[in-house]
């Protein structure tokens, strides 16, 4: 079956077309430039941008896949988690397409979509797999027994998300928003100093994360440098910050694999584009005998193909469609890949 996937949880209007594990079309319209001057996503602005981008983005996705709307067999949409108004635009559009086409509607979980998308690139996921989701809004470790029906949360951030920490530290260092790619780049020029920042929740026996103490440590370092008049070496601070983040993320993710006897780790979400995270994850997975799967960066950030990919799994599992009364759920738990 041909699945149309619609994603509007944050600031990307994503539309994907998937058949099984085959990616046929993937179009994304982002409103990120409209948020730059605010230093973060403004929900009202994001909702309006989704409204304007929705129909043209669906049309571009159909055209690029070389299919017609009438060929679609099912419509999948992000039901949550995400921004309330943004989710509502996507869910309303998906209901309209499903009704107009006379095809079933599936409201699916955005976070689980970030895991499901890997199958478009690397084929069927071994069962079980561990997934590390690292994005602007989330930092979660999941045990994925079955991507359509059985996902268990192992741990989460107790404060800031990893991407949020990158964005906040970038602001402290006067780097542009979104800060992740800028810190990644700056860090490649630094790292020679003896600077070392704390590792949040290191060795605490949980799979939880904490990044706000790290952010505060960076802020204090910047203040101290300002006060003493010593020059701020942005590259070294970026490198030391990044070392702390990727050390904890990869340590806990690999521990989760080893301690639960799981031999595959998937890393996804916008921060999975980070070069240091990729390099250290590769090294530690190789040492632990764990297979590492990271989708290409385009599929790691928010997109519609990930929602279509999860929709395809849900349809293949024979789960009943969502009702046309489907409501958005801003905090849909990962234990619900399919919203009712
Ligand atoms: P959600 O959390 O709901 O998935 P989001 O839009 O915040 O939504 P993504 O689009 O997946 O998440 O990722 C954006 C985040 O990824 C931003 O915080 C950005 O700074 C971070 N990011 C992007 N590239 C890199 C990189 N190379 N290194 C570190 N962080 C990065
Ligand atoms: Mg985004
Ligand atoms: Fe996301």
TrEMBL record:
Organism: Nocardiopsis coralli
Binding site for Fe cation: 110, 114, 302
HAMAP family for this protein: TsaD (MF_01445)
Function: Required for the formation of a threonylcarbamoyl group on adenosine at position 37 (t(6)A37) in tRNAs that read codons beginning with adenine. Is involved in the transfer of the threonylcarbamoyl moiety of threonylcarbamoyl-AMP (TC-AMP) to the N6 group of A37, together with TsaE and TsaB. TsaD likely plays a direct catalytic role in this reaction.
Gene from which the chain derives: tsaD
Domain called Gcp-like: residue spans: 23-308
Keywords, alphabetical: Acyltransferase, Cytoplasm, Iron, Metal-binding, Transferase, tRNA processing
InterPro entries (alphabetical): ATPase_NBD (IPR043129), Gcp-like_dom (IPR000905), KAE1/TsaD (IPR017861), Peptidase_M22_CS (IPR017860), TsaD (IPR022450)
Keyword GTP-binding carried by entry: no
Protein name: tRNA N6-adenosine threonylcarbamoyltransferase
């Amino acid at each position: 079956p041909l699945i149309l996937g619609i994603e509007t949880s944050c600031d990307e209007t994503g539309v994907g077309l998937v058949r099984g594990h085959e990616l046929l079309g993937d179009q994304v319209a982002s409103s990120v430039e409209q948020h730059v001057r605010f230093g973060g996503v403004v929900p009202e602005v994001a909702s309006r941008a989704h409204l304007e981008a929705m129909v043209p983005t669906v049309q571009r996705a159909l055209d690029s896949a070389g299919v017609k709307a009438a060929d679609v067999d099912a419509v999948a949409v992000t039901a949550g988690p995400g921004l309330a108004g943004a989710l509502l635009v996507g869910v309303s559009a998906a209901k309209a397409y499903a009704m107009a086409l006379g095809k079933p509607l599936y409201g699916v979980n955005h976070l689980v979509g970030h895991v499901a998308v890997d199958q478009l690139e690397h084929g069927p996921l071994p069962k079980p797999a561990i997934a590390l989701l690292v994005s602007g809004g989330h930092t979660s470790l999941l045990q994925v027994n079955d991507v359509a029906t059985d996902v268990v949360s192992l741990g989460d951030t107790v404060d800031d998300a990893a991407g949020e920490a990158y964005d906040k530290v970038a602001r402290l260092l006067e780097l542009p928003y979104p800060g992740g790619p800028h810190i990644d780049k700056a860090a490649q020029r630094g790292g020679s100093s003896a600077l070392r920042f704390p590792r949040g929740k290191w060795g605490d026996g949980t799979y939880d994360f904490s990044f706000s103490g790290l952010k505060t440590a960076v802020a204090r370092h910047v203040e101290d440098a300002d006060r003493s008049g010593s020059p701020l070496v942005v590259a070294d601070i970026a490198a030391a910050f990044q070392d702390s983040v990727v050390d904890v993320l990869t340590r806990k993710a690999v521990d989760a694999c080893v301690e639960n006897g799981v031999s595959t780790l998937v890393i996804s979400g916008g921060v999975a584009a980070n070069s240091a995270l990729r390099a250290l994850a590769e090294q530690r997975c190789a040492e632990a005998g764990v297979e590492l799967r990271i989708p290409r960066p385009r599929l790691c950030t928010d997109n519609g193909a990930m929602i279509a990919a999860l929709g395809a799994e849900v349809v293949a599992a024979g789960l009943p469609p969502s009702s046309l009364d489907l409501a958005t759920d801003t905090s849909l738990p990962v234990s619900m890949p399919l919203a009712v």
